[in-house]
Specification:
Helices cover about 70% and strands about 0% of the residues. With about 525 residues, the chain is mainly α.
């Protein structure tokens, strides 16, 4: 029986400080020279956060400086919206492509290449003399970050002993959602200063630091499954499922909801996504996207919560920023009012660290959806006459806690529902679905608010985002309870050792269909 290989491409029992040099040689050769100066775990955390955080900050920060970018590059708001939409599409597509490449090539080489692309793309966008160069740079930023997601997170999770996992998930949560929370503040500060290029140049600097961290800290693990046949239909379907819907939503403000240029690309893209899911579920035993492995109750309920809860959160964040403008809040003050987002994410990360090895992890995800609902409810009175200075910080803290508690735990509920060597592919699928929802809902609701106009438009859009979050909670609970899911602590040691999933759950709605719950 062969030794199982984790997603990091190394046997679970291997120590990262010795694997690079092999088991032979003198004792002074066992410790890699890099580890004399840097902790392997510290380097792994650093390269992961530096790989993912810069672009995630940009997704919420560039909105505040979009008018500066438009005037500087002499381009329209529609062009910038298309650039943002295609960049988010590139992120989702990049994760799918990386899921395949990680099976075939040494991930260290892939990571260094992806990070170099991100640095070049950030410099292109930050130093762009015109709109086309900016668009190309920004789209490549998104795609490179999607590639980096799959190259960075699985090794960080699987390379180290089970005792490291609670701290790892806290860092991942802070890196992903702390960055989202920090973005509006940075954007408002730079908008007040009248500059935007330093935002993108700063992303390039952080990317370069990530490349250096990877050079020192990313070991040369072998490919995970080089014999896996190329799942050719996945890639055209993934391209259509990402770029078409994001393009349609980006054009909504210009062409209107009734235009075929809006609903046509979205309809075709969603059809492509559904086709991809059905094809991967039915096609063969080892598809690139592990849809069948993720089709039990826990992964499905977590994914639904992450999609609709995350979409409601992103929409609410954009609408709160618009609401602050309508209420005449200054840029720096607006950024400060949103800073409690970071505190909310920090609290959720502490709880996530505590609960990742316990049976209560699904309850954390449910509490996150409740917090998103509460946050939107708290900020709604500001769309009438309530004071922003009081309610926006409270809502921000709730929204930060909600995003950090709903989305990342759902990602791990799905990831721990498959064998550890498939976690990168599971993350790619979940991020594809989550991004599809998050970055379609927000642009459409912003356009709706603009079409209605004033505070009334923002109120209606906030109510819709609230209903989306409620719908996500209800569907997730229906799947969880209707399946007869029994809470149990994840079997982390077995999972990291390659002995099957950490979480087991029954088929979707097994209880209602009278099937055994297992």
């Amino acid at each position: 029986m062969s030794t199982p290989i984790t997603a990091a491409g190394v046997p679970p029992s291997a120590d990262p400080t010795t694997a690079a040099t092999g088991s032979s040689g003198s004792s002074d050769q066992v410790t890699h020279w890099r580890h004399r100066y840097f902790s392997p775990y510290t380097l792994a955390v650093a390269l992961s956060l530096l790989a993912l955080s810069p672009f995630i900050v940009l997704t919420t920060a560039t909105e505040a400086v979009s008018s500066l970018i438009g005037s500087s590059l002499h381009t329209s708001a529609t062009t910038l919206e298309v650039a943002s939409g295609l960049s988010n599409a590139g992120y989702a597509l990049g994760a799918v492509v990386a899921a395949d490449l990680s099976q075939r090539f040494v991930q260290r080489h892939l990571f260094l290449t992806y990070e170099a692309v991100f640095v070049v793309a950030s410099l292109l966008a930050g130093l762009a003399p015109n709109a086309p160069v900016y668009v190309i740079g920004h789209v490549l930023q998104g795609m490179a970050t999607g590639l980096l997601l799959v190259a960075a997170l699985p090794p960080l999770i699987l390379r180290f002993p089970p005792s490291r996992l609670p701290l790892t998930v806290a860092f991942v949560n802070i890196g992903l959602f702390g960055a989202i929370a920090l973005g509006p503040f940075l954007g408002d500060v730079l908008a007040q200063a009248g500059t935007w290029r330093w935002l993108l140049i700063g992303a390039a600097v952080l990317g370069a630091l990530g490349w250096v961290s990877a050079w020192f800290g990313y070991e040369t693990w072998p490919p995970m499954n080089p014999e896996l046949p190329v799942d050719k239909p996945v890639f055209p379907l993934a391209v259509a499922a990402t770029f078409l819907p994001f393009l349609g939503s980006a054009l909504a403000g210009t062409v209107g909801f009734a235009s075929p240029w809006f609903w046509g690309p979205i309809a075709v893209g969603v059809l492509a996504l559904l086709t991809l899911i059905v094809y991967e579920y039915r096609h063969r035993e080892e598809p690139l996207m592990p849809v069948r492995a993720l089709s039990s109750a826990l992964p499905v309920s977590g994914t639904i919560g992450a999609m609709l809860g995350g979409g409601a959160f992103v929409a609410a964040l954009s609408l709160v920023a618009l609401l602050q403008q309508q209420r005449g809040v200054g840029l720096v003050t607006a950024g400060l009012q949103l800073l409690p987002l970071v505190a909310g994410v920090a609290v959720s990360s502490i709880l996530f660290r505590h609960l990742i090895t316990r049976a209560a992890l699904p309850l954390l995800a449910a509490s996150g959806l409740l917090a998103v609902i509460a946050g939107i409810g708290v900020v709604l009175p500001v769309a009438w006459s309530a004071p922003p200075a009081v309610l926006v910080p409270i809502a921000s803290a709730l929204l930060g806690f909600g995003a950090g508690s709903a989305v990342a735990p759902a990602l791990f509920l799905a990831g721990m529902g498959v064998e550890s060597q498939k976690i990168g592919r599971a993350f790619a699928l979940i991020e594809l679905l989550r991004s599809e929802a998050a970055f379609l809902i927000a642009p459409v609701l912003l356009v709706l608010a603009a079409h209605i106009g004033g505070l009334a438009g923002i109120r209606e859009a906030l109510v819709i985002s609230l209903l989306i979050a409620v719908l996500g909670l209800l569907i997730a609970l229906a799947v969880y309870l209707g399946s007869g899911t029994r809470r149990h602590a994840p079997q982390i040691d077995d999972w990291l050792g390659g002995d099957g999933p950490a979480l087991h759950s029954p088929p979707v709605l097994a209880r209602l269909r009278g099937r055994a719950t297992g």
